[in-house]
Design a protein that fits this description.
Blueprint lengths: L10 H14 L5 H21 L10 H13 L4 H20 L26 H9 L9 H14 L3 H5 L6 E2 L4 E5 L5 E5 L2 H20 L27 H14 L8 H14 L4 H8 L4 H4 L1 H17 L5
Antiparallel strand pairs: 1-2, 2-3
Helix pairs in contact: 1-2, 2-4, 3-4, 6-8, 6-10, 10-13
Length: about 325
């Protein structure tokens, strides 16, 4: 039996116990915790409405399928239902492992079939044009925003990984960046010359702004007004939402699609490495993917791009 402090009573108590485990043992991000809590609380409330005395050991796969059906009736997409099922499956896996249930009913429920959407990735030329043209007309703090784009595209890191970077995570001597990924896993990624140059230019301005504000913070990327500089919970750290707005504004002004977001640059990083001949396992390490199958999506992506070129150019394709 797990040592996690939970009750064997109401479903909500078991949800709380699972969330505590995610926080303490797995170091789940705040975003993951919010998503899992939302999905599991909704499922627990639905089960309680059907039978207020229902214990977790009485939940069968038919109940879970019925819940997914209820989500569809409410107008939710298959992707939303799949996210809900993923949370329920993970919870039931923990419940089985800790002895609260003998059989994992969620394992018998199939994932809703989802359409395969490959993200649109800008070309190498488009990315170079965007990153090289960050100036006052597209950015509120050009040196910072140029460094942000260089890190997202040049290092392939996630938005949350970028905003969590501290000054001492930049290892100048080794030309590397210490990145804290999902589940508190750490990895080093190379710091290329272009990214290093952009970082140095930004950090000179960062130092000047902090000196003028008579403040200090370990956070690498700061918000424009240095809001929260004296608050331990913020210390003027740039948020992921702000990074999303910065990337989208610059991308649109430079002629890219309106659906560009920080993760698009990460996709571009992996896709362009593959196009230029990088080994798939090396890309897996650089991106911090736990499974090679996740990285193999980039193979599908480049195949789709090659097919598009073939269809447009080969005389026998028309």
């Amino acid at each position: 039996m797990s040592t996690t402090a939970v009750s064997s009573g109401p479903l909500d108590a078991l949800v709380t116990g699972y969330l505590q485990m995610l926080t303490g043992e797995r170091g789940a991000s705040a975003h993951t915790l919010r998503a899992y809590e939302r999905e599991l609380r909704n499922f627990a409330a639905w089960a309680a409405e059907r039978d207020s005395s229902m214990g977790v050991d009485r939940i069968e796969h038919t109940h879970i399928r019925a819940y997914l059906g209820a989500l569809y009736e409410r107008g939710l997409s298959r992707a939303s239902a799949a996210r809900a099922l993923a949370a329920i499956r993970s919870w039931f896996k923990w419940l089985a492992r800790t002895g609260y249930i003998e059989q994992n009913a969620a394992a018998l429920v199939s994932t809703p079939r989802l359409p395969k959407h490959l993200p649109r990735v800008p070309s190498i030329e488009q990315m170079n044009r965007v990153v090289d043209s960050v100036d006052e007309d597209a950015a509120s703090w050009p040196a910072r925003d140029r460094a942000i784009l260089e890190m997202l595209y040049g290092c392939g890191i996630r938005n949350a990984e970028l905003t969590s970077l501290n000054l001492d995570d930049i290892h100048w001597a080794n030309e590397a960046v210490l990145v804290r990924g999902k589940g508190q896993k750490q990895r080093y990624v190379p710091l290329g010359d272009a990214a290093a140059e952009a970082l140095r230019a930004y950090m000179a301005e960062r130092t000047a702004r902090l000196a003028a504000a008579n403040g200090a913070t370990p956070a690498l990327f700061l918000n424009l007004q240095l809001r929260g500089l004296n608050k331990a919970s913020s210390r003027a750290r740039l948020t992921t939402r702000s990074v999303g707005r910065i990337v989208k504004r610059i991308a649109i002004l430079r002629g890219l699609s309106a659906d560009v977001h920080p993760h698009t640059l990460r996709h571009a990083f992996g896709t362009h490495l593959l196009e230029e001949g990088a080994d798939l396992r090396a890309i897996q390490e650089l991106l911090g993917h736990e499974r090679l199958s996740t990285t193999q999506r980039y193979t599908q992506l480049t195949t789709a791009q090659l097919t598009a070129v073939y269809d447009k150019t080969h005389p026998r394709a028309r």
